[in-house]
Amino acid sequence: MANLDSIDNALLAALQDDATVSLDQLAEHANLSRNACWRRIKAMEATGLIRKRVTLLDPEQAGCPLLVFVMVRTNNHDAEWMRLFNRAVSLFPEIVGAHRMTGDLDYVLRVRVADVAAYDRFYKKFIAQVAVSDISASFVMEDIKDTTALPL
C-alpha cells in the first residue's frame, strides 16, 4: 500500500489518535461516504498497513511504571544462539520491544517493570535463559515524548 493519498493519511491519522472512533465519524472526517471509508480501511487492513487496533494502557496504573532500556552484546551470532535469544524474548511479557541493532550494541530491549527490584528479578531470569557477553540497563527518568503514532 505504498500509494497513500491525502484521504488515506487523514483516515490513518484519525485512527492512530483514537482507534475507537466510529466509521461514521471517520467518513465525515475524511469527507467520504460510509461505504467508501469502510472499503479504504479494509484495503489497508488487507495489505497489512493497519496491523491491528489496540488499547494503550497507562503504565503506572497497570503496575509497570518503570521503563528500562536494556543493552545486550553477544559474542555468539550463530543460528542456535539467535533462536534461544528470540525464544527468551518471547517468553518475557516484561519485554515490550526488542530490536537488533547495528554498531556497538547487538540488541536493545524495552522492558516495563514495577520497580528496580522487579527489574533485578527480570534480569536474573533473562540471563539464565540466554548467555550474553554484556548486558547493561538505563532507567528512564522522564518520558518527554512517547508515542505509537507514525509520521504520515
In short:
Residues 4-65 form the HTH asnC-type domain. With 152 residues, the chain is α+β, with helices and mostly antiparallel strands. It has helices spanning 6-17, 23-30, 34-46, 79-91, 116-129; strands at 66-73, 95-100, 107-113, 134-139.
What this model shows, in words?
The protein is an alpha+beta fold and 152 residues long. The protein has two domains: 6-46, Arc Repressor Mutant, subunit A; 66-139, Lrp/AsnC effector binding domain/regulation of amino acid metabolism (RAM) domain (Alpha-Beta Plaits, 2-Layer Sandwich), CATH 3.30.70.920. It has five helices and four strands; from the N terminus they run H-H-H-E-H-E-E-H-E. It has helices spanning 6-17, 23-30, 34-46, 79-91, 116-129; strands at residues 66-73, 95-100, 107-113, 134-139. Strands 2-3-1-4 form a four-stranded antiparallel beta sheet. Helix 1 (6-17) crosses helix 2 and helix 2 (23-30) packs across helix 3. The model has no long low-confidence stretch (mean pLDDT 95).
Reconstruct the topology from this structure.
Elements: H1 6-17, H2 23-30, H3 34-46, E1 66-73, H4 79-91, E2 95-100, E3 107-113, H5 116-129, E4 134-139
Antiparallel strand pairs: 1-3, 1-4, 2-3
Helix pairs in contact: 1-2, 2-3
Largest sheet, strands/sense/barrel: 4 strands, antiparallel
Report the CATH topology name of the largest domain. Alpha-Beta Plaits
Q: For the record, give the distance between the C-alpha atoms at the N and C termini, rounded to a whole number.
A: 13 Å
The CATH homologous superfamily of the largest domain is named Lrp/AsnC effector binding domain/regulation of amino acid metabolism (RAM) domain
Taken together, the total number of domains comes to 2
Mean pLDDT: 95
* Helix content percent band: 25-40%
